[in-house]
Every structure is written in structure tokens, then in C-alpha cells.
Amino acid sequence: MPKTIPTTPTPPPAARPTPPARRPNQRPSTLKSAASHRPNVLSLLVRGTRDRHWTFNVGAALLTLIVVILVLTPWIAPHDPATQTLTDRLAGPSTEHWFGTDHLGRDVLSRLMWGGRFSVTIAAITLVICAVTGGIIGALAARRGGWLDELVMRSVDMLICFPDVVVALFLIALFGSGYGTLIAALTITGWTPFARLMRGLALEINSKDYVEAAEILGSPKAYIVFRHVIPNAMRPVLAMGFLRFGHKLITVGALSYLGLGVQPPDSDWGAMLLDAQPYMERSPGLGILPGAAIFVTALSVTMIGQGMDVKRKRKRIAATDAPSGPAPGTRTKVVEGEAL
């Protein structure tokens, strides 16, 4: 007879625990509120200042204070900058006039605030135009190459030889003084450093894998320039823009000092320096205050650019010192990164 093998009975499957009952309007316990994970604005600012170099933080604080004062000038300026009170001419600091008055009895603090709006605005508009124009021209020249690249670089070499003040004097002699003439004079030669920098960055970015992949897919050259080249070169160009702002601000002040900038009754820091020159012995604050305003504003913006450049150099050094290959047993993930 065949032997029968005894089998052990299979235990019944364990019953799954039933989830606790919840109210109809109650959200599941696994879904947490998005507000609890939303970062605070103050925490983001603190984290950003910790990651930056100290020069960036100091420059950003100074520039923020200056911009806030200039924006609020129509509401916080104590007096009309054009109002003349000849009985109070060359008066010292007082409760009514904190920084005193000039040779026509005008309040110096109000003229500083209103003059800063003109100087900073002209310098900022000129810098934005130069950065955008030079960046696009340099990127297109590097992407196209050939005769266009040669033409752009020879034009840059020619225009960079002419100082901004000389070009401004030539244009003002032809078209007269004015805001448009001043912006055009500072823009004609101001785009050349940005074009040269963007061309060098674009030549490096063109050799990246994601650019070659876009070429294989048949993407137009303009799409590659505006989608891959310019975004990956924005950080160095932005740092140079901050570093060049001080040069633009000083040039605007120099042209106004020569009488080629803003015209009376308006004022700016360069015109205030010109008006204060005959009265420096009697009231030295008339020349020290606008000069200090130009210095502090240019220094704050330059410190921001210097802090950005220091962080970029640190990242480059860290990438150079890093091991060339991944550790054994680790997975690697290829992502599209920045050029610098």
C-alpha cells in the first residue's frame, strides 16, 4: 500500500487591521499641510546670507538702504530741492536743514536725495541696456562664428579704445545735452565688455553635451542661444554688471560736473560737486556729501559683484579638487548644469 505523508494544516491568513474611522471632512493622516512645509521668507534670507560672502551681504544691505531712500524721496524729502532762501544761504546743519544749505539757500539733504534718483537711474538704465545688448551680440557671435564673430570682435577692439567721456562730448556737441544723449553716449561703448565676456563663456558652453544634443535634435541656433547658452552664462555676466555699475555712476557724475548732464533747476550729485567748488573753504560739506554719496553707492554695488565672483571662484576650486569619478557602488545622475 502506498504510504500517506501527513501534511500540516495551513494556517488561515491573518486579518488585515482595519484603519481607524475618520470624520468625512478629515484629511488623511499621511497628507500633511503644505503650509507647515512652506519655507519662511525670513529663513530664506538668513540662509542666503549665510551662503554668501560677507562682502555680498554688506553691499546688499547698503544698496537696499540707498534704494529705499531714493524710492521714498518724494514722500520723505524735507524740502523742495529747487526752493531758494537767500537769507539762509551757506547755513550750517540745523533742525530745519539737517545737512545745511547751499549758496542759494536750498536744502542740501533734499538735493542729495533728488539728485541720487537721477544719477542712479541713468546709471542703472545704461547698465541694463549694455548688458542685454552685449550679451546677445556676444552669444550670437560665438554661436555663428565665421565672419560675424570676426566682425564683432574687431568692432569691440575698436570701440573699447574710446573713453565714455570722449564719446559723450562728441554726441552732446552734435545733438545737445539731454537724457537720451547721455544714455546713448554711455551705451555706445559700454556693451563691449559684456560682449567679450559672453563670447568667451559661449565658446565654452557650446562644447557641452546638452548643447550638442540640441544640435542633433535639429534645434535652431537662436533657440540654442536663448535656451542653453545665455541662461548658463548669466551668473558671470550679472557679476560683471554689478562691478561695472560703479564705473557708470562715476561717468554720469563726471559728465554732470562738466555741465553736460542734468540741467538746472534739476540736480544730481555731479552738478552738486560743481556748484560746491567755489565754496569749499567756507562750507566743505557741500562737496564732501555728494562725493561720499557717489562713493558709498558705487562701493555697495561693487561689493555685491565681488561677493558673487568670490562664490563662483570657490565653486570652481571645489569642482577642481573633487574626485574625478564617483565612488564605487554609487549611482550617478547626469543633469544639465551651469557653465561656471
Structure, described:
The chain is mainly α. Residues 28-39 and 330-340 have low confidence and may be disordered. The chain has helices spanning 34-37, 41-51, 54-71, 73-76, 108-144, 146-159, 164-175, 179-188, 192-205, 209-216, 221-232, 234-257, 269-276, 285-321. The chain has 14 helices and no strands. Helix content is 63%, strand content 0%. It has a domain at 113-318: Orthogonal Bundle (MetI-like fold).
Provide a brief overview of the structure.
The protein has 340 residues and is an all-alpha fold.
CATH superfamily of the domain at 113-318: MetI-like
Q: Supply the number of helical segments.
A: 14
CATH topology category name of the domain at 113-318: MetI-like fold
Rounded radius of gyration (Å) = 31 Å
Classified by CATH, the class of the domain at 113-318 is Mainly Alpha
Instruction: Tell me the span between the first and last alpha carbons.
Output: 85 Å
Shape: flat
Average pLDDT number:
76
Low-confidence stretches: 28-39, 330-340
Percent helix among the residues?
55-70%
Architecture per CATH nomenclature, i.e. the level-2 architecture of the domain at 113-318:
Orthogonal Bundle
Sheet having the most strands:
none
Number of β-strand runs: 0
Q: Kindly estimate the percentage of residues that lie in beta strands according to DSSP.
A: under 5%
- One letter per element, helices H and strands E, the order comes to HHHHHHHHHHHHHH
Structure classification: mainly alpha
Quaternary state of this entry equals single chain
